[in-house]
Amino acid sequence: MDSATLDVLDLRLLHALQLDGRAAFSRIADVLGVSDRTVARRFSRLRGTGIARVAGVTSSHRVGHAEWLVRLRALPPAVAPLAHALARRPDTAWVTVASSGTEVICIFRVAGGGRRPSVRWAVFRRSRRSTRSGCCAR
């Protein structure tokens, strides 16, 4: 099997880990109907090829943070610099470019009572390259 090809078992394994990243391989193996050695071998291959990564992430709500999902539309020349600037922020948990390079979608994790992230929204809105923005708490 090609190392970058995912079959049904790989996808089911990844789904199980998304549901519970701390689940034991033996429990996942029981659910998937394979041996725990198969699960361990498949997971090792997925990690080795970079398809799966292990990351420790705090539960935002348990540590008193709020999450904001932000969607920004801009003209294509402005999208990459905007996405890179957002990705460098310490409160950005996730950022991606969507809609054929005309939108930036990101998640901010902010401390406090769920206040809107401190981003210079007015500056972005005044930019001739921006067209629309939206923000909502998760």
- Number of helical elements: 5
Unreliable parts: none
| Proportion of residues in helical segments | 25-40%
User: How would you write the strand order of the largest sheet?
Assistant: 2-3-1-4
Instruction: Summarize the biggest pleated sheet.
Output: 4 strands, antiparallel
The average pLDDT is 82
What is the SS-derived class?
Answer: alpha+beta
Gyration radius, to the nearest Å?
A: 19 Å
N-to-C SSE series? Answer: HHHEHEEHE
- What form results from the Cα inertia axes? extended
Terminal residue distance: 40 Å
In total, how many beta strands?
4
Beta-strand percentage? Answer: 15-25%
What do you see in this structure?
The chain starts with 7 loop residues before the first helix and ends with a strand. The protein is extended, with a radius of gyration of 19 Å. It has a four-stranded antiparallel beta sheet with strand order 2-3-1-4. Helix 2 packs across helix 3 (36-48). The protein has 138 residues and is α+β, with helices and mostly antiparallel strands. Strand 2 and strand 3 (103-111) form a beta hairpin. Helix content is 38%, strand content 25%.
